[in-house]
Write the structure tokens for this entry.
Amino acid sequence: MRILAFGDSFVLGAGDPDHLGWIGRALAGRREVTLYNLGVRRETSADIAGRWPAEAQPRLVDHEPMRLVFSFGCNDCNLEGGAVRVPAAKSLLNARAMLTEGARLCPVLMVGPPPAAEADVAIRAEALNEHLKVLCARLQVPFIDVFRPLAADGLWTREAAEWDGAHPGAAGYQRMADLVAAHPAWRAFTAPS
Amino acid sequence: MRILAFGDSFVLGAGDPDHLGWIGRALAGRREVTLYNLGVRRETSADIAGRWPAEAQPRLVDHEPMRLVFSFGCNDCNLEGGAVRVPAAKSLLNARAMLTEGARLCPVLMVGPPPAAEADVAIRAEALNEHLKVLCARLQVPFIDVFRPLAADGLWTREAAEWDGAHPGAAGYQRMADLVAAHPAWRAFTAPS
């Protein structure tokens, strides 16, 4: 199986001293899974929507099961020049386009955004997380919600505050990986076919 | 610092149960380093030459030191329909183009190919490794030779033979990572500026 993961710095695992991120950690021990980590720092849903088809193309093959993971949202909710980088309605349009086009190629799964450290960003990200969940239900794309468990737990945001304000360390990424790996949707999505 | 690593399945770390590959392992503990692993399975120097500028573009930033790593060669030496996939002369032209264009953007380093399991591929890969070393010396690009140490050691090829014939496991990738991480060229290349 080959998994292509498109998203932002959280997918990439920025700040993880082990260079794994939550997705590398969620796939620990699965050596038969080829992971293409295509997270890019600072990218919004618009950036990812513009980039993913070209980067998927050389990585897709016919002779092995393929999977597409999308995870984004926090950067959409950040401010730039006083305005939200991507308004929620546009984030949802971008998500719908990616999930719909992705599902034509292979099974698709979405992981919602983790909590942000700044209060105003966190409020917008939490709302976007809920909207993305509803969108995914409508599109019949499995959605894994990590926002509330990570926010309630506090480890993620505490590690982020101690580092660069946004990215946790090994323990925070592991906590998110554990949430994802234990989710029935992830287990079905990554089950050997 | 941000490191963009372009190459093949060995850069990607295919078969590594920890999803790190040699480059993730060589950067263990360096959480201030953002690693973009842009290895793609089965790709030759021609494939990478065609893809790397577009994939580098969204990952390059001005506000942090950038580094480019290239590592390829084994797939060039494989046979396809009775012919070598990329003849050595063409491999060297591709390498020269990538290293020259890359060096215009930021410091560049090349890591030579690891040993191949099949005898005829290994002979061609060893010759290509030598040619790439000479090219890099001419271009004043640091080159790290892992071919002979990994071949002499035997762990890499033994693990590969036990798995899919090409890719080692955790120990083989760690051995290559140790060779790279201990090399003065790597230490200078990844030193905090």
Q: What stands out?
A: Residues 78 and 84 of chain B are 6 Å apart (CA to CA).
